[in-house]
Amino acid sequence: MPEKGLFCGNNRPKDLTAMTDLEKKHLPVIDCPDSVRSGEPFEVRINVGSIPHVMEEGHFVQWIEVKFGESLYSRIELSPKVSKPAVVVTLVKQAKHPKGTLRVIERCNLHGAWEATKEITIQQA
Ligand SMILES: [Fe+2]
């Protein structure tokens, strides 16, 4: 049964130092460099949850989006049973600004969308 309160916007943990199991299962974990060079590819590794999230027919992670600000860089659709909510995407960031906010959003069919962010420095080439 979907929890209605979780389907209003993107969820974030209330306290990163004291996350509930629900928050730990859904908050994306971002692994990528703190600093990248403008125009050069870099990898972003994403795991949904610091503890594993199930991938069953009735409860699964439907998609993962990667954005800089409001710009969509990548969207990966997932299927239950045959995939895990972990992906690696290769991005290229052009430097219009010296810093950017990488946003990773995942959507669970029962628990809504969850967003994690990371500030990245973009060095001029
Ligand atoms: Fe879930």
CATH topology: Immunoglobulin-like
- What value does the Rg take, in angstroms? 15 Å
Number of domains: 1
Class by helix and strand content? mainly beta
> Approximately what portion of the residues adopt beta-strand conformation?
over 45%
Terminal residue distance: 50 Å
Bound molecules: fe (ii) ion
Instruction: Average the pLDDT over all residues and give the rounded result.
Output: 94
CATH superfamily: SOR catalytic domain
- Tell me the number of helical segments per DSSP (H or I, 4 or more residues long): 1
CATH class: Mainly Beta
Order of helices and strands: EHEEEEEEEE
Unreliable runs, pLDDT <50, ≥5 residues?
A: none
State the total count of DSSP E strands: 9
What would you say the CATH architecture is?
Sandwich
Helix fraction by DSSP (H/I, runs of at least 4): under 10%
The major sheet is characterized as: 6 strands, mixed
Form type: globular
Could you describe the 3D structure shown?
The protein has 125 residues and is mainly beta. The chain has a single domain, classed as Sandwich (Immunoglobulin-like), CATH 2.60.40. The chain has one helix and nine strands. It starts with 9 loop residues before the first strand and ends with a strand. Bound molecules: fe (ii) ion (FE2). Fe (ii) ion (FE2) is lined by residues 26, 53, 59, 108, 110-111. Fe (ii) ion is lined by residues 26, 53, 59, 108, 110-111.
